[in-house]
Amino acid sequence: MPIKTHISGFGKFPSSTTELEDFEMDYPSGDFIFRGNGMSYGDLSFSDKTLSTRKHNQFIELNTTAGYVKVASGMLLLNLIKILFEKGYTLPVLPGTLYITVGGAIASDVHGKNHVQKGSFGHHIIDFNLITENKEALICSSSQNAELFQHTIGGCGLTGFISEATLKIEPLKGNTIHKKSTPINGLSPAIEALQNSNALYKIVWLKNNRQGALLEGDFTDNKTEKISFKQPFTVPYHFGGILTSKPILSFYNQLKFSTSKFEKETAIYPFLCPLDAVQNWNLLYGPKGIIQFQFTVDQTHIEAAINSVFNWVKISQATVFLATIKQFGTRSSFGSMSFPKEGFTFTIDVKYTTGLEKQLQQLADKIIDQYGGRFYLAKDSFLTFGQLSRSYAGFNAFVDFVRNNKQLKSAFSKRTGIHS
User: Fold this and answer.
1) Which pLDDT does position 101 carry in this prediction?
2) Which residues pair with 176 in a beta bridge?
3) Counting Cβ atoms within 10 Å, is residue 221 exposed (0-12), middle (13-18) or buried (19+)?
4) Which residues make Cβ contacts (< 8 Å) with residue 323, sequence separation at least 6?
5) DSSP class per residue in 179-206
6) Cβ–Cβ contacts within 10 Å for residue 378, how many?
7) 11 by DSSP, 3-state: which?
8) Phi and psi of 282, rounded to 5°?
9) C-alpha to C-alpha distance for 249 and 257, rounded to whole angstroms
10) What is the pLDDT of residue 388?
11) How many CA atoms are closer than 13 Å to the CA of 355, on its beta-carbon side?
């Protein structure tokens, strides 16, 4: 019998009480949604009834000759990557955390620090098996059930259960990364540095809108170094949020900036996913949690959009832990609700205070209407139906498609008005 459970996304806001149970290939009565490892920040992965996919985590097939791997959707990317690395292969695109499921990676069409060269996760999906709300089992690809394929990639889990997926793989060029960090003063130099960098992986960390550092990475030809996956340190408690108070964060950011000029060979996993070294790091913000939001804007408007956020931070006295800029390449996404588009993407996380989501709705209006921005749904806690309609070209077609759902609804789809 399902047990009522308090649940949230990784940001801890918003939260809700749901009937949480393992998915046994049978759909319940009432509204429900699927949930992988619960690493999206907002309310994508809970509903009145929430079905965990984590037990569907089988490794099915690896074909290095044809260049693909087939797995069940509940497998963590971390577990899949451990297998692939051992065989000398990798997935072309990895996000900032590997503690997400394959199904979650598809449903959010995740991206990494290498979008300019490799695109998003959706570009490397060969096909997947989808069980619709009507319990139809369909194989979906760019040529088979193409509309369903398009709406599922980045579709927030609202099209059905991805039971298994076939993904492209590529040879691992080396077992370590050549990592270079360069201090930067000003947003214009930061944007220019990203554009001029030919590195496979590149990202700018920002201390504020005046100082930061460009971080670049490329595979070395070192294949003798053993690839390791260290056990992460676990944050046991939120400590009232004192460890992310403004004085401590100010000291940390100043120290980080003052030591931001270096070049070294480093392990792959800590480079790609530095925050995975600390499990439950979101607790450090305190019991109310955080809102992390991310938007993408074209080159013409990115500097003004970022400045508008930092101006809001100053006026609102918000507490910020992390802010970054990445570059998106020219490859058009497959998904109708995929986030990446050509330009730059800015990410910032803010300690939650009462009413923060209302402030961010107003900020989102400015970024969408003045700068042509688009917000990432995997990190959404505040967007409205109108904002989504104005920023996602495929939104209306997506809504028409998923509004036929009688039960498959999430807290996100109800909050935004996609479902009543």
Assistant:
1) 98
2) 267
3) exposed
4) 205, 206, 208, 346, 347, 348, 349
5) EEEEEEESHHHHHHHHHH---SEEEEEE
6) 27
7) coil
8) -65, -20
9) 12
10) 98
11) 3
Q: Report the alpha-carbon distance of residue 337 to residue 297 in Å, rounded.
A: 16
Q: Where do the domains of the chain lie?
A: 176-391
Q: pTM value?
A: 0.97
Q: In sequence order, what are the residues at sequence separation of 6 or more whose Cβ sits closer than 8 angstroms to the Cβ of residue 95?
A: 77, 105, 110, 111, 112, 121, 273
The pLDDT score that the predictor gives to residue 1 is 62
**What's the confidence (pLDDT) of residue 336?**
97
Residue 73 carries which side chain, given as an amino acid letter?
Answer: S
As given in the structure block, the two tokens for residue 307 are: 């400045």
Report angle CA 92, 96, 99 to the nearest 5 degrees.
Answer: 95
Which distant-in-sequence residues (6+ apart) come within 8 Å of 256 by Cβ? 205, 207, 213
Q: Please give the pLDDT value at position 274.
A: 96
Backbone angles phi, psi at 6, to 5 degrees: -80, 130
* Cβ atoms of 197 and 175 closer than 8 Å: no
Q: How far apart (Å, rounded) are the C-alpha atoms in residues 285 and 134?
A: 41
- Which residue numbers in the chain have pLDDT < 50? none
Q: Are 193 and 204 in contact (CB under 8 A)?
A: yes
Residue 313, amino acid: V
Half-sphere exposure of 13 (CA within 13 A, CB side): 21
d(CA 282, CA 302): 27
**CATH code assigned to 176-391:** 3.30.70.2520
Question: Is 301:270 a contact under the CB 8 Å cutoff?
Answer: no
Give the other-Cβ count within 10 Å of 241's Cβ.
18
- Six-digit token pair at 195? 């554009």
Distances (CA, A) of 88 to 99, 189, 313: 21, 37, 44
Q: What is the pLDDT of residue 3?
A: 81
Using DSSP bridges, classify how beta strands 278-279 and 233-234 pair: parallel, antiparallel or unpaired.
parallel
Q: Write out the two tokens for 210.
A: 């005046």
8 A C-beta contact, residue 337 and residue 279: no
DSSP per-residue codes, 211-267: EEEEEEEEE-S--SSPP--PPPEE----GGGGGGSHHHHHHHHHHHHHT--EEEEEE
